[in-house]
Write a structure and sequence with these properties.
Shape: rod-shaped
Helix content: 25-40%
Number of strands: 2
Strand content: under 5%
Distance between the termini: 155 Å
Radius of gyration: 47 Å
Order of helices and strands: EHHEH
Strand order of the largest sheet: 1-2
Amino acid sequence: MTDTPPPGPGWDADPSATPPEPPPVPPSGDPTGGAGAPTPDAGGGYGQPGPWTPGQAPPAGQGPYAQGPYAQGPYGQPQQPGYGPGPYAGQPQYGQPMYGYGAPTPAQTEPLAIVSLVCGILSLPFGCLCAVLGVPLGIAAVVTGVMARNKIRSSGGMLQGDGLALGGLIVGGIAIGLAVVLIVLNIVANIALVSS
């Protein structure tokens, strides 16, 4: 018994026979190779305006691979209407610089407001210990507090610290008043001691 291959597709009965010819290469305008692609109906199915058969020139403005009503998405997949890249497609991603006006800068604290509050707080103990030191610190707190509040109001929201300036102004005023009272009491006490 000899091993002979059964006759059928892919088996040649005669090993000396030549292989079959490959199918012809389709012309550049015919994507189907002349096999007769399914043509859309006259109503313009498949996104084409009318019937098109291989061998004819495609309608004006559309090649043989014309796209239908759905735009071609990435990787050759059609995109449905309403499912585009989204409203933020043109926006820069996180970490990328923005152009135009940029992000709003936070309001900075006015340095004179801080100076006013510090001078006001220091003027109280110095006014109680030595009235001569409390008065200049209290005056500095009031003056810098007024200047800081004027700058903050005229900055249009770019500067903050109105509360600090107001606090320094109030505490400085109290320290001045307290120092003046202490100075007057000291003078009265000294006059009383000298006269007795």
